[in-house]
């Protein structure tokens, strides 16, 4: 009588558990990223937070092949947020500081710009004065009389401005004068004027006697 042979079946070998050799590194990266995020709103110290964030990014990328995927992703997100958040906050602080310094400088600029407006503007220079603004005197520089034959007189015109006029406010112009007293009649002469300077050309006159008055007047200004 033959009995059946029973073949022993070995139990299945359980699959090896996945290795978690970088799991501690992932948790360190998670903690570093969390610390960096906590330092984001603190000026100056957030520089250290940014450095921690960079270190956390590096450790997260290394640990992604040796730990749970969610832990590596979470560590990477926190570390990246620490870096980006620090850059954004520092840029905002710089912009706020520039706004404050710009606003404090504006009143000074306005004051400097407004200063010239407080001064009285200089009157524009006119081309020339009117004839009524001027008078002419005749200065006798030489006189020689010959009895009944009359006298020879040399005079130099002297131009005078009315007291309220400033000669330097005018440009160049010509003054025509008429001199009375010469035995031949009125003598016409011109003066070339520029500001307070003019060419005083001597005039030679002949009078009938030494008692004749020699006078001058302004004829025109142009």
Automatic annotation (TrEMBL):
UniProt keyword annotations, A-Z: Membrane, Transmembrane, Transmembrane helix
Transmembrane segments: 25-42, 48-65, 70-89
Keyword field contains Transmembrane: yes
Tree of life domain: Bacteria
Region Disordered, residue ranges: 105-130
Protein name per UniProt: Uncharacterized protein
